[in-house]
Amino acid sequence: xxxxxRIGRSTVDTIQVHGYDLAKDLIGKITLADMAYLGAKHRxxxxxxxxxxxxxxxxxxxxxxxxxxxxxxxxxxxxxxxxQAAVAAGLLGAGTVYLGAxxxxxxxxxxAFEEYGKERKIEELASIVIKDRKEKGLQVPGxxxxxxxxxxxxxxxxxxxxxxxxxxGRHSQLLIEIHKQFCxxxxxxxxxxxxxxxxxxxxxxxxxxxxxxxxxxxxxxxGLVAHLVEDMERGRQNSIAQQVFKYVEDxxxxxx
Length: 256
Hints:
Elements: E1 8-10, E2 15-17, E3 20-21, H1 22-26, H2 32-41, H3 47-59, H4 67-78, H5 83-91, H6 101-116, H7 122-135, H8 153-165, H9 170-186, H10 194-204, H11 209-234, H12 240-250
Antiparallel strand pairs: 1-2, 2-3
C-alpha cells in the first residue's frame, strides 16, 4: 500500500514542505502565520496577506481567564508531566461561545452570496440574511461581548488593517451592514466583536469557512503556553489552578 501527500517528505539530505526546501526556503524566512497560510493555500503569502493573517492571529491569541485557559491550568495541575495534554484540554473549548463564531460568521456570509446572489445590493442582502435566520430560529453570529458591551477594541483595528492590505471586501461590508440593520431592529447598540470581524476578513481573503476556526485554534495554543508558564512560575501550591481547585473544594457540600 502506498500513501501519497504533497505536504511533506524527506530524503537523506533534504526536507521538502509543500514543494519548498525547508532549510533553504522557509526557516528564518517566513513566520509561523505564513506557515499556516502555506498549509491552507499551498503557497507562501504575499507581504499583505502575511500582515493581515499575523494581525488576526495576534488579535485572538490571548483572552485572559476563559474556560479554555482555566481548563489548561487545571489539567496541568493534575498532570504536570503532560504539557501537551494541558494545551489540548484548553483547545477543546473552542466552540460556539469562544472562537467558534468566526467560523459561523464566515459560513453565514459565504452562503449568503452563494444562495442569494452576488449581484444584490449589500443592504438588500443583509436584510435577507437577518430575515432568513430569524425565520429559521438561528442567531446572528459575531455580535455581542460579555465585557466589551460598547465596542470591541480589536474590531476597528482589524478592519483598518484589512483596508490597508486590501482585504476589506464584500464579506466585511455585508457583515457591517448586517450589524447596522440588526442594531436598528433591536433598538440598541450591540457589539460587533473581533471574531465576527475575523470571519468576514478571512472570507475576503478567500478562506473556506470550514478552515477558518483552525487558525483560531493554532493561535490559542500559543496563548495557552503563557498560562501554563505562569502557573509553573507561581509553583504548584500558589498556582491559579490550585486556587481554583481549593475554592471549589471548600465551597462544595458533598455528602457521600
